Request: fold
Amino acid sequence: MLGQMQHQPLLISSLLTHAARHHGGTEIVSKTEEGAIHRTTWAEVEHRARKLARVLAGLGVGPSDRVGTLAWNGYRHLEIYYGAPGMGAICHTINPRLHPDDIAYIVNHAGDRVLFVDPSFTGLIGTIAPAIRDHVRAVVMLTAPEHMPALTLPPGMRLLCYDELVAAADGDFAWPKLEEETASSLCYTSGTTGRPKGVLYSHRSTVLHGYAINMTDVLGLRAIDRVLPVVPMFHVNAWGIPYAAAMAGAALVLPGRHLDGASLHGLMNAERVTIATGVPTVWMGLLAHLRATGGRLDTVKVIMTGGSACPPLLLEAFGAEFGVSVEHGWGMTEMSPVGTYNKPKPAHAGLDPAGRLRLGLKQGRILCGLDMKIVDGDGRELPWDGKAFGDLKVRGPWVTEAYFGDAPGSALDAEGWFATGDVATIDPEGFMEITDRSKDVIKSGGEWISSIALENIAVSHPDVAEAAVVAATHAKWDERPVLIVVPRPGRAIDPAAVLAMYQGKVANWWVPDAVVVLDELPHTATGKIQKTVLRDRFRGHLGAG
Ligand code: AMP
Reply:
């Protein structure tokens, strides 16, 4: 027997109509390219998103067509986040920090019909235009007529002005009642190897993810919050914040391209931000600025960090010096992205400061709706004892089953699990801790050594700014760790002193066999260390292979 409840599809447009109807006057604040502050509301965003749906139809965009964006966090980008999926098209956010060849590849692979572009990426469009002319019919600049840049496009590709198009469009569009499994958005992973791969979200997965991250033991956004997503809207839907904020009726503060410590500090205090989300690099920049200037955070209660491991300094310094709690989450493009979040359980009530720090560095427990497990090299499930580490697998309704263009289910194993590519432990309370990426783990004599554990110890040395540990081929042990370090400005690194840091902290056989000092490390477009480049360079460093 089926239940007798109403069938209402879970649609992205319904989040926006909710925000407009019940929180219509709540602000969306944007820092524009020019640095000025622009203010609008959820009601106005909904009105303009409906006009945008008309604009898209006028440009020949129909159901399932891909609409590309190359844009910072701002209100126009937010309108596309809702307008494109709302009318049945797919919002395809593109990371402008990628190499132009990769961007052209992504645009062509996605088959984008229209590109919506911030004026600061005009040069980039000029570079890639000849390579994308087969698909892209129009480039719409996200600006007012008076700020339109000069740009010559190939024949058949029109240059248009966003504000002009929206101003001229009718506002009578009605959001269609789509199937909830309809594709809504597309985001390519910034993989450190191979070509980027697309993850295609649905209305249903996006809405469920929004509910999940709005639970109190996750981000738990409230109508009284003013949320600053520093994480770019071109990176996995800004971790779902633009959708979760509409559900909660929270205000959004969108920083544009101004992501340095001084700009964020100014925006946080001026706009009374209560919660901010971003990668550790951004928060380290803010911390350095606050310490250098003696600045305070007047209203911020929570800083959420994710995307890469949380440095201990972040947890310690923001709490002790600024009264802000740093919360740690983990996820990936393939998971919409949030998978785990670190909030305590009753078992943690009596922890001392060292214990709280140790706990805070873990990536956290799985969100309700998802499941996870760790397995060894033969696929056997490992115990949740906080010690055994193995490949982390996940499943759930906001986890991908196939990359864009691939056969259904092709990203899953026979039991329907998705291999994250991360290596992790899980403790008896269900707190997961990443110990490595599976391809970064060092396999020494059949045992695994965590490169992340070794890097964390190296960066706790005062002379070390950044560290990476990669496997070098070894005649006897197959692989041994090599530590590569970058000195802090004005400091010199003594390799013996750095190696001494490992005594008593890890088993003797984990200690790196060699230390290499470099001026800088290679990084990916999302700021992660490019281990593949280092691996290729240092594979033969120990004289074997
Ligand atoms: P992306 O799809 O670009 O967001 O990258 C996802 C990957 O980033 C994950 O598979 C992890 O390897 C890494 N990652 C994300 N969050 C964290 C975190 N909190 N700690 C450590 N690694 C993380």
Notes: The first helix runs from residue 12 to 22. The CA atoms of residues 263 and 447 lie 46 Å apart. The first strand starts at residue 27 and ends at 31. The pocket of adenosine monophosphate is lined by residues 189-190, 236, 306-309, 328, 330-333, 337, 363, 420-422, 434, 437, 526 (CB under 6 Å).
